[in-house]
Amino acid sequence: MSLENLLEWRRSYRKFDESKSLSKEDIDEILSSIKFASCANNRQYLRFISVESRDVVLEIFENTKWAASLADNMGRPKEGERPVYFIAILSDEEKKLRFNGIDEGLVISNLTLTAAEKGIGSCIIGSVSDKKMREILNYEDKYSCEVVIAFGYPKVKSSIKEIDAGEDQSYYLDEDGNYIVPKYKIKDLVRRI
To answer: Is the pTM for the entire model greater than 0.90?
Structure first.
């Protein structure tokens, strides 16, 4: 797959084929992408928890919120559609710099692109409670968890629809239950000089 096609395919997926688990090899390759992420001052203050236990995956799932743009929990995966794997990203509060969001974004991009290359979908979830994640995952006090990434083989499609500036950019479901993600045209986002 070309890089452009890979970038286009790597959307947020919120419905997974729960009957298909990720192989150990795929998980290892996804995790290996962490070492290639740039980070400010090479501090490497982020830590990761690879949640491979089905019971813990389901416990994390029960403590996340999904698809805020869709009403009535329409975007929340149902039984048979839930993720099969999570990565929790922990931030060392003592070491992080003002670039912390950038560092997280860079590593998240590596993780999700590596998964996408294998046909594995992902969803970045920021609607998590550090207190609840700490109870489930039992990590040190100096760390906080503000984001988890859900993974699995997608059961639906997710595609981009180009829109004009000012149009509603909220994602929505089409008549077949696939995600449509409106994106502004490059000419409306980039000023060339």
So the answer is: yes
β-pair type (143-152, 121-125): antiparallel
Dist CA 65 CA 2 (whole Å): 32
Residue partners of 113: CB distance under 8 A and separation at least 6: 6, 7, 10, 33
Q: Name residue, tokens 């990761």.
A: 48
Q: What is the secondary structure of 67-83 as a DSSP string?
A: -TTSSTTTTS--TTTS-
Q: Are strands 46-51 and 121-125 parallel, antiparallel or unpaired?
A: unpaired
Q: How far apart are CA 81 and CA 83, in angstroms?
A: 7
Backbone angles phi, psi at 145, to 5 degrees: -120, 115
For residue 20, CA distances in Å to 48, 128, 134 come to: 23, 25, 28
pLDDT at residue 46 above 70?
yes
